[in-house]
Amino acid sequence: MKSASTPSGQELFAGQQLMGTRHLRMLRWVLGVVLLMAVVAASALWLAQHQARLLSRPSQHNDLWYIASVNNELSRVSLLAQEAAAGDTSIDELVLRLEVLYSVLDHSPTAPKVNVQFRDTLPETANTLDELARAVDASAKQLEQPNNANLPATLRQVATGLQRFREPIAQAVADVHLASTLEADRQRLRLLLSFTLLSLALIVVLVGTGIIIWRALKDREVALQTSQALNEANQLLETRVRERTRQIDEAHNLLTFILDASPSDVALIDALGGQVHYINRRLMERLGMHQQPQTLRLQDLLHDAATGQALRQALDESGQIDGVEAQIASTPPYWSSLSGQLIEVEGRLCHLIWGFDISIHKGLEHELRLLATTDALTGLNNRRAFLDKAEVLLEHCRRYRHACGALMIDIDHFKTVNDRHGHQVGDEALRATARSIQSVLRDADVVGRMGGEEFAVLLPNADLQGTLDTGERLRQAISAITLPLPDRQTLRLTASLGVASFQPPTQTLAQLLAQADQALYRAKAEGRNRAVRYLPEMLDL
């Protein structure tokens, strides 16, 4: 009986399925959270690294350096132009510094590239620098003209032209410095925001990791409880399986013992391949087998293969057979009353056959049949059996219009033999007469003792002359009998025979035997020890 506190196997299986479904959902949820946290953390980390790279670029302060370089070069060129106008420096050095300033300001496709950002953010400063570049280029070209007669005036003009850019360039330096400072502040704010997002992502990751760890611990606790319950259920199930297996083995052993001890023969055979699933010991002993055979066909189980084939066909068609009498193929064969059932074993159709030995019954039946149909003294057919067989034989001759002859035989002076020599000699005379008659007749002929010393014979396919010839041979065979007597003398027998021929299709067996009997009376009247055929005028006797 199942304990109320112990879960059943079905309950455990249902609980395990439900837990498996929950674990699958939880696993999907955890994987989703981990993936989301990884995406957020990766995005924040990338953004922080991007902002850090922006702040750490070498060209980050190019704008300020560039505008400061332009301002310094402009101051130096202006000073050199004033000194050249005063005659304190050479024109070549001034031209060289102008070219240096121009190269810094030059933004043509062939000029060296300087990464500056203010040209996009400060267009007025960019225009000022472009004007300065054009002015420097024009000044350099004026100074490079040969034979310049008014060189001092040109130098003063160059110095004045460059001097007017001092204030716009100084303002540009202030503007670029302010713009660079603002841009650096913005980048620092973005970097701070990136690190804030990264911190939040890390906090989320830590919180999520904590939740996952907590959930894992809870799942581990539940798994341990479930595993313990499952182990207990498995132990209970194994105990029940062992108990059930023991019960099945005991039942199987008991059934095998009963079947082996049973007087019946039992076999379970595969219907298609003939593999033997079971055969009891009694049947194996009857078949002369020491161990269970691998295969045994149903038709091979019976002495007559045709009967076995018919038995199998009937079993396959109807699904069962009951009380079929057949001979089992043992040594010697014996009669059995067989029954069978078409059943399914492990998905395959099988023949379950069982039977009982009825050899004694069949022997008694045969003896009863012999007692009912055989004359006990002579071993010939008695009157009833002779008439039954003769009726069947005569009907066959009538149907196929075959000839048939009849003989009535009577031992001459048999009453005198009994009175003079005793009934023992008379009985021996009857047995000797029966043996003589059987020695002459064919297997197809029917002979019987009709009573007392009278015998009857039916000869199929024999016309009147053939019947007369057979009757004469019978008479001679009986006349050749010599029986020893107690006084050392011998007894010789003779017989009278009446012969008749079947007249189809209306003549009956009674009429045919009556004609042969009439001819027998004529043979006795004419002196005995002879065979006389029936004539129509004998009806007057």
Tell me about this structure:
This protein has 16 helices and 12 strands. The protein is α+β, with helices and mostly antiparallel strands. The strands form 3 sheets. A 5-stranded antiparallel β-sheet has the order 2-1-5-4-3. The protein has a 5-stranded mixed β-sheet with strand order 7-8-6-11-12, with helices on both faces. Helix 2 runs antiparallel to helix 3, helix 2 runs antiparallel to helix 6 (151-163) and helix 13 (414-421) crosses helix 14 (423-440). The longest helix is centred in the middle third of the chain and has 96 residues, at 166-261. The radius of gyration is 69 Å and the shape is rod-shaped. The model is unreliable at 1-6 (pLDDT under 50). It is an enzyme of class 2 (transferase). The chain crosses the membrane at residues 26-48, 191-217. It catalyses: 2 GTP = 3',3'-c-di-GMP + 2 diphosphate. Pfam families: GGDEF (PF00990). It comes from Hydrogenophaga defluvii.
What is the secondary structure topology, with strand pairs?
Blueprint: H1 9-55, H2 62-86, H3 91-105, H4 118-121, H5 123-143, H6 151-163, H7 166-261, E1 265-270, E2 276-279, H8 281-286, H9 298-301, H10 305-318, E3 320-328, E4 334-345, E5 348-357, H11 359-373, H12 383-400, E6 404-411, H13 414-421, H14 423-440, E7 446-451, E8 454-460, H15 464-479, E9 482-484, E10 490-492, E11 495-501, H16 509-525, E12 531-533
Parallel strand pairs: 11-12
Antiparallel strand pairs: 1-2, 1-5, 3-4, 4-5, 6-8, 6-11, 7-8, 9-10
Helix pairs in contact: 1-7, 2-3, 2-6, 2-7, 3-5, 5-6, 13-14, 14-15
Organism: Hydrogenophaga defluvii
Pfam family, one: GGDEF
Transmembrane segments: 26-48, 191-217
